[in-house]
Amino acid sequence: MIFSPSSFDSRANGIIFEEIQIEIAKRQHLTAEFKEINPMAQLPAIVHGSFKLFESHAILIYLASAFPGIADHWYPSDLCKRAKIHSVLDWHHSNLRRGAAPFVLNSALAPALGRPLNPQAAAEAEKLLSASLAKIETIWLKDGGPFLLGSLQPSIADLSLVCEIMQLEVVDEKDRNRILGPHKKVMQWMEDTKKATQPHFDELHTIVYKIKGRLQQLREAGANSEIQSSNAT
Predict the structure, then answer these.
(1) Could you report the per-residue pLDDT of 1-26, keeping only the tens digit for each?
(2) Which SS3 state, helix, strand or coil, does residue 41 take?
(3) What H or E segment, with its residue span, contains residue 83?
(4) The model's pTM
(5) 3-class SS at 46?
(6) Which residue in 66, 74, 82, 73 sits closest to 17, CA to CA?
């Protein structure tokens, strides 16, 4: 993941925390120190006192439950509503994430991590990503309100899924438009979630916008280099 929805949740609910950035490109997640927190050597992870926890959805649930004064709509006390949120989060891991993360990696992010782009893997991931976006529209956004499960206010499920899709900001704009363009309800839901969580939404995604700008510069430099080579021949 490029960023964590748990950081989003903390900001939106006024939870005081210290954010420590782990640079994957520098392999900081593989250090012995970090593996003491998460032996899986993956992000995100948190430490609260002596308690250590990893996996983004587990962290979101913990943060929404462990601190007083968190608005009920994030993780409702109603058992049936909670179960519905869990169903979205479980679906996310085996569908949307399996499409979005490898697509972003193999179509844009890999060179920044010292790996080659893989168009074939990106194409396969795009199929699952597009199918997942269609499922969001026809199942999770089909009822009533502007947020997932027909809710009038966002939940931790909205945060998690929107953060996943926001990673598409770093890919080439024509690819992003091709993928998101057919899904107007998804785009409106993302905009509604952004508005409901400002200014924290833009604060959290600052790093995404920076990566987007850096990758765009690299793409433009590569295109100019190809033009110059073509002119030389």
Answers:
(1) 334 555 555 555 667 778 888 888 78
(2) coil
(3) helix 79-94
(4) 0.85
(5) strand
(6) 66
